[in-house]
Amino acid sequence: MTIIYLNGEYLPLEKATVSVEDRGFLFADGVYEVVRYYQGRPFQLEAHLQRLQRSAQGACLPLPKAVAELPAIIARLLAENNLQDTNFYIECTRGTAHPRTHAFPAEPHPTLLVMPQPIHSLPAEARTRGVSAITVPDLRWQRCDIKSIMLLPNVMAKTQARERGAFEAILVRDGIVTEGSSTNIFAVLDGVLATHPANHHILGGITRQIVLQLAAALRIPVREEPFTVEQMYHAQEVFLTSTTSEVLPITQIDGQTIGNGQPGPVTMRLFQSFQRMTEREG
């Protein structure tokens, strides 16, 4: 029986409910984070909480006071659920308001949810052989830097990938690669590690930022500049990053082989450095 936190209460997941008038339910009016724990220790928790604050500010969403207690809330959930390696999903909506109306309520009553989620195993040999991806149009809004629960375009893209036997959908806006449906995308172009700049067209991932720091420490040249789909097809290496997938090589996109069809040396150096970091900090 999984115990979760909802608006000040610790209760079984099966008994947790929110009002049908919650604006998260009616308008997708909310923000969220996913934090990974390794051996019972958080990885980059403070960075995730800072991004939660930025997302809330971008959405003009007042966070409840309990957000300041999130480390303690998660610690209790770890203990009550007897967990070590897990993800924690954190969601804050603008809460219940009556009657339903598009404009923000004058006095919001935010909803705060925290619940553990299992770590889903990657496909067999994903690390050693890489995964495949497809490209799809980026249909999202102009504030992708806000980690909003409004994820329908992402969900549709991920479903297209699954239906075509791919691991990820890479989003493309006006011929430019932005990011994945739930990941950030990197490519090695002429020996330089490239990724889309962290502006309003992408969500600046925590793992993305860690990889940039690791690349600097390893003296791998980096360029935070947009690149095209054609450039990506002809890249020496492509990989994705996320809290749940960490650093994962992509060896086929739209049926085209990337590089020599095997995880490349830059990808593997960064993954190994990332692993060492999680062992030290996680």
Key phrases:
D-amino Acid Aminotransferase, Chain A, domain 2, globular, D-amino Acid Aminotransferase, Chain A, domain 1, 2 domains, alpha+beta, 282 residues, 6-stranded antiparallel sheet
Q: Assign the structural class, choosing from mainly alpha, mainly beta, alpha/beta, alpha+beta, or little secondary structure.
A: alpha+beta
Radius of gyration: 19 Å
Subunit arrangement of the protein: single chain
* Unreliable segments of 5+ consecutive residues: none
| Outline type | globular
Order of helices and strands: EEHEEHHEEHEHEEEEHEHEEEH
User: Mind telling me which CATH architecture of the largest domain this is?
Assistant: Alpha-Beta Barrel
* End-to-end Cα distance: 25 Å
How many structural domains in the coordinates? 2
* CATH level-3 fold name of the largest domain: D-amino Acid Aminotransferase, Chain A, domain 2
The helicity comes to 25-40%
Mean pLDDT: 97
Largest sheet: 9 strands, mixed
Strand content: 25-35%
CATH homologous superfamily caption of the largest domain? D-amino Acid Aminotransferase, subunit A, domain 2
Quick structural gist:
With 282 residues, the chain is α+β, with helices and mostly antiparallel strands. The protein folds into two domains: 3-117, D-amino Acid Aminotransferase, Chain A, domain 1, CATH 3.30.470; 126-281, D-amino Acid Aminotransferase, subunit A, domain 2 (D-amino Acid Aminotransferase, Chain A, domain 2, Alpha-Beta Barrel), CATH 3.20.10.10. It has helices spanning 23-27, 45-58, 70-81, 126-129, 152-163, 206-217, 229-233, 265-281, and strands at residues 3-6, 9-12, 30-38, 41-42, 86-93, 111-117, 131-137, 168-173, 176-180, 184-189, 192-195, 222-223, 237-242, 246-253, 256-257.
